[in-house]
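Replying to the earlier thread about multi-chain prediction with a worked example.

Input:
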Amino acid sequence: MDANSFFRVALPPVCGLGLLALLWMIVSSTMGQDIPGPRETWLQAVEVFRDPFYRNGPNDQGVGWNVLASLQRVAVGFGLAALVGIPAGFVIGRVEFLSRMLNPLISLLRPVSPLAWLPIGLLVFKGANPAAIWTIFICSIWPMIINTAVGVRRVPQDYMNVARVLNLSEWKIATTILFPAVLPYMLTGVRLAVSTAWLVIVAAEMLTGGVGIGFWVWDEWNNLNVKNIIIAIFVIGIVGLVLELVLIKLATAFTFEEVKT
Amino acid sequence: MSVMSNAKFIEIQGVEQTFRTAKGLFPALRDIHLHIAKGEFVSLIGHSGCGKSTLLNLVAGLATPTEGVLLCAGKEIKDPGPERAVVFQNHSLLPWLTCEGNVYLAVERVFGASEHKAQLRERTAAALALVGLSHAAHKRPSEISGGMKQRVGIARALSMEPQVLLMDEPFGALDALTRAKLQDELLEIVVRTRSTVVMVTHDVDEAVLLSDKIVMMTNGPAATIGEVLHVDIERPRGRVELAGEPRYLHARKAVIDFLYKRQGQVEKVA
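Result:
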């Protein structure tokens, strides 16, 4: 790496992280013992990650199991939402009547915090785990419906004219024109859904308990183990970042050149 | 097919097209009467906004006229269909399919019910060979030039063996040299396939070089056919030989006179 690209590419993020550490140290030294500093937290993190997959009963498991449990809930809830939301988005985008019928419902329900649905989930499913999955389902379904529907509506008229001139069947239109054209929009919906789901799962697990990174945070708060809470914040951030990066890579791989008008 | 229906293969009777816009009704076309014989090459020429593309879309069946009737081979044109293939102005290739895939989509739709996969692939290859693109069959549209994309668009349209080939400013977006090359290719293809062609253009030379009949349209709104010029030059035609040909020069002058002397006030209208 030459000097120029070092100053342009590598230095700024390092400065950013340095600034974070500096602020953290200032806060921790002015707050006395309440907030542990970066050094102590780092030592604790090394300790925590020495054995992330231990199991001492249901309420004492390694951070690795907690993260995996949360990811699993997100995967199930998100997967179910994709199964329902993407086809729903296609139909809403394609059929004017359904779009007018369902848009008010979506507008009404979308701004509701997904956590408000948690009690309903507990009531209906009689269990903490399905209720958390239900919450993830609710929060990830809206971006997928909306983005898919917008994508379907924005399929270039030229492509639809090709379909009309060739007199393609609705199935052929869906598979050879709509699906590839909508894919980039759909993946944007997926990305928004996954990042929202990852935000929501932490809060949901704080309320439902069990195994999960959110519950871990809450549990460590009850133990007054602030170092682990800070570690959890970093873990949540890094996992979220990795999810985002993977989905962005996926989206760019499936984006095609648009017709130039 | 009788001589009568050959002479009036496409019939346009009293067609009027009005668009509903935010500012109210906009009359685009009025009082269009035209017939096109089988195997005839017809150009629609006029200034921008004169409704020539609108008229082509009506023949394609992509739009329905407010008034009047369009017939093709004695049947009313109600919907688009593969017997009236369209070459779009901006090629409209699907970017996620290869050139071959784009042509195959059309071939499969038209002949898929009656022919085997091998025959369909043969047709696809033949269509690409016709426009000289066999070597680019496995490339995606983003990997080839504008002229090549337009040729794939033409190959896709021709592969359907349509009764009519409809072209909406097919070479409008290309540079002059590429345009001339594609015009020459099209001349050859038309002679070989004896296609009936309706082409929208704003290029006088293109119209005279390619057409049997040039339909000149008045300025919009409420545009109509101002004059129809027959170009009585035998085929095959060559660009170089025609350059000094009096009939060519006469036709060219007639179109230019119409466009710039009689319909020259386009700026004031627009």
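Residues 93-161 of chain B form one domain.

Feel free to reuse this layout for your own posts.
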